[in-house]
Design brief:
It is a single chain. The protein folds into two domains: 5-70, no CATH class; 82-112, no CATH class. The protein is 4% helix and 33% strand. It has one helix spanning 67-71; strands at 5-6, 12-13, 18-20, 28-34, 36-37, 52-55, 58-64, 98-102, 107-111. Strand 6 and strand 7 (58-64) form a beta hairpin. It is rod-shaped and about 70 Å long.
Length: 112
């Protein structure tokens, strides 16, 4: 995993380094495509994915922090959001305590 570094003046950067602006441009990050040393003042960052930004002798390519994750989803996939409502007697025994625990990727349902 590549960690983004906040832009700093007169700093050497290698191809593939990830930089984020000091002012946080709408969730955008910038990948170094031409190595070099940053300038003495921060460049004008773009909010357009794929656009180049020039900083002294460095060239960055703009990308979104979530673009790579979203682009891996098959465009023919269907993502559905729904609410799950469990009914006593139908989904769990009467007079039992239902405990829902939410984790990052799933919800654990326990009947106690």
């Amino acid at each position: 995993m590549t960690v983004a570094a906040v832009w700093a003046a007169n700093t050497g950067k290698s191809v593939g380094n990830i930089v984020c602006p000091t002012n946080g441009v709408a969730g955008m990050f910038f990948r170094v495509t031409t190595a070099g040393t940053t300038g003495s003042s921060e460049p004008s960052w773009t909010n357009i994915i794929g656009e180049s930004v020039y900083d002294n002798n460095i060239v960055y390519e703009a990308f979104s922090s979530i673009f790579n994750d979203l682009s891996k989803i098959n465009p023919t996939s269907v993502i559905e959001l729904f609410t799950l409502e469990l009914k006593e007697k139908l989904h769990y025994p009467e007079n039992n305590l239902l405990v829902l625990t939410q984790y990052t990727d799933f919800i654990l349902v326990q009947i106690k």
